[in-house]
Each structure stands twice: as C-alpha cells, then as structure tokens.
Amino acid sequence: MRVTVASARSLAAHAVARILREGVTLDAALKDALVAANPQLAPSVRSLSYGAVRGYYRHEAILGRLLSTPVKSLDFLVRALLSVALYELEDEKTPEYAVVDAAVQTAKATDAVRAAGLINAVLRRYLRERKTLDADIARNPATRHASPIWLADRLRADWPVRWTQLLAASDTQAPMWLRVNSRRTTTEEYLGMLQNAGIGARAEERVPLAVVLESPCDVQELPGFGAGLVSVQDLGAQCVAFPLALAAGQRVLDACAAPGGKTALIAEREPNLSNLTAVDVDPQRLTRVRENLKRGELHADVVAGDAAVPGAWWDGIPFDRILLDAPCSALGVIRRHPDIRLRKSPSDIDKLPLLQRQLLNSAWRMLKSGGRLVYATCTLTRSENRDLLGAFVRDTPDAISVPAEEWEGWPNFGEMDEYGRQILPGEAGADGFYYAVVNKS
C-alpha cells in the first residue's frame, strides 16, 4: 500500500464504519485496520479516526441540516467518510478545497463510490453555508460539544450546574499521564530521562509519582518503559492509592482487575503485602494484567473468576483491603475513548447499578471485620456512584462510610458528596473518576 493521506482517510473511515456497524471499540477497529497498513500511516489514521469519532454527533447535527434524507439512512461507510472530512475541515490543517476533493477521491476508491457525488455536494454546500451552520450548531451545548442528546440530558439531570462544563471537557483530547515505578526510580530521575530523550514533561506534585507529558507519544519512545520504570495511567486512576491506605502485611483483592494498571500500582506502592490477588471475569483481558506485572517485575496472584460469584475461586480467607473497580458506563473517560458515545445507550447504563450492587454485596462478604472496601468507577452518573453507595450503606448494618475529608493525603481536587469524591473530567488534567470508602465494623 502506498503511503498516502488518501490511504489514511480510507482506513480511518473503514474503522469508524466498523464502530457504527458492529459496535466494536475504536481501539479494536484501529488495531485491525492497521494490521496490513504501512506503519507510516498509523499516526494519520489514528488522528483522523479519533477526530471523526470525537466530533461524530456535531457532524450529525450539521449533516441533518444539509441532507434532504435522514442522516441515519446513509450507508455506514458514507457516514464515516463525511465525518472524517468534516473533522479535517474543523482541524483546518488542510485547505478546504483539498479536503473536499480528497473525500470524493477516497469514496471513489472504496465501496462508497456511488455516493461520491453526494459527498461532493454535501461538503461544498457546507462550505458555502458554514458560518451560519456553525453558529446555529453552537447555540445548543449538546451539538456544540458533539454529545448525543440523551447523554446531555442525563448529565444535566445529575449535574445541573456543571453539565455544560462536563460536555466541553469530554470534547477535548486527554493528556498522556505516566506513573513512575517508585521501586525502580524516582520522579526526579525519570523527568531527567525524559528531558534527555527530548520529551517535555512535568510532575504533578499533589499526586506522588504522577508525570504528564507536554505531548502524547508512543510508549516505546518512553525511556525505560519496557523495563518497567514507568507505566501509562491517568492521574485520576492513580488517586486510588489515597483511599486504599495500604500497609505491610495486608491481604488485598483487586476485583475486576483488568487491564491491571491499579493492580500494578498497588504492588508498587506496598511491596510487603501478605498477598495481592487480581481477579477478572475475562481470561483474555488477564493477559494484560500479567504483562503489566511482568514488565514492572511485580507479583500478584492473577485469577480468572467472577467477583460476583467468588465461591469458584476464593479460598475463604477474608481480605484486609478490597478494591472494587466496578464495570461502569465510563462516561468520565469519553475524551480518551470518544467511541463510548457511539456504543453506549441509556438502556445500557440503566442496567449497570444492578450488577454493581451485586459486586458490592459479594465483595463485602470477602472483606474481614475491620477491613476497608474502596469502590471506584470512571463515570459520572449519580445512579452508579452516590446513589448506589447510599443504598448499600443504608442496607448494610456493618458498613461504615468513611468521609472523603478523612482520606489521608488526598489532593485538593474532586467534588465531595455524602459517600465519596467525584473527580470531574479535565479537573487537574485528570479523567473523571469516583471513589468511595466503606469500612467494615
């Protein structure tokens, strides 16, 4: 395959079309798209794909004003090609006439050849009416920030003061955060390694061992990545160390552990645990957990099992600490995984609290008296966070909610509620995470 921007556009459009057609993740679609591609195409394909997906619902609103037929009637590939082109026009790195011409030529070189005329007409009309259309789109916070209406409505209901801020934060590109392995080096030493490699970065003093890059890069460019000196982990995820209050001799369970970032963090922060067990229901995803541990020369018992049904794998010995990083709607990490907006639906989210409560009940049975459970999600909904924890504490006689102001060392960000603390997307540069702490009497 020749290394051309046209090839990159085609690959990006096919990746986006797979998300629409099959519901696969953007990462999975890109991985498959780039298998046989020239490696030099990868950066362009990723940029175009992420841009098209991130702006998808804004593009849908634009197309709804330009088409005489419903947007949803378009073939998936045609729809994807239009979002790729509209993203390029938003990005303004390529001249407008070149974007339109390239979109038409790309359509002619793919299964969308019959729609080349439509693509040409729609994009040229957009350019003629762009100023008016963009102003109209910008009046509505949901379309301005490329959010599906149902998501904007849900955020407005849960966060009536902050909802537009949350939409705006989710419409941006996330920074690349690193977690320095304190068992192998120090933050200062690693910043020096980055400087020597020509990679700009700074430490986040409020979260020990957290480093943010000035610009994202491939992990293989990071000094010592293969040797386990550093891992990629968002700042919000690294905050799990504060509520866990780890200490030597503890027996710790990381439930729902894959892909293992928090398991590795626990192993790094307290090397003298009595035992660390990482459990996940998906055996394939546990491969990532093992890889992360091996790279950092860390140890944990990695177990394939359902945290909601521990009888099949648990030895019956209670844990001092349990981290329940529960499956959730992931609305707090949309800026990092914009395809969530395309793949999730209100019905998907409404099913989650039942599963989360089942996991909480099961984890509680495995926690020793005097032990601590940390509940974590990477989402923003009250039903999966505050409301769920409130119901659990009220229904569980030996559950004692630990106020967020009592979590030792917690940095000065995150919004407190009655049961935990919500880090909002973009706050301190972090993704959106929720944490709650419950002790067992």
The coarse silhouette is globular
CATH superfamily of the largest domain: Vaccinia Virus protein VP39
What is the number of strand segments? 13
- CATH topology group of the largest domain: Rossmann fold
Number of domains: 4
What are the key terms here?
441 residues, Alpha-Beta Plaits, 4 domains, nine-stranded mixed β-sheet, four-stranded antiparallel β-sheet, 13 strands, 44% helix
Give your account of this protein's structure.
With 441 residues, the chain is of the alpha/beta class. The chain folds into 4 domains: 5-139, NusB-like (N-utilizing Substance Protein B Homolog, Chain A), CATH 1.10.940; 145-171; 177-232, 2-Layer Sandwich (Alpha-Beta Plaits); 235-440, Rossmann fold (3-Layer(aba) Sandwich). The chain has 18 helices and 13 strands. The strands form 2 sheets. Strands 5, 6, 7, 8, 9, 10, 11, 12 and 13 form a 9-stranded mixed sheet that branches. It has a 4-stranded antiparallel sheet with strand order 2-3-1-4, with helices on one face. A hairpin with a 3-residue loop joins strand 11 and strand 12.
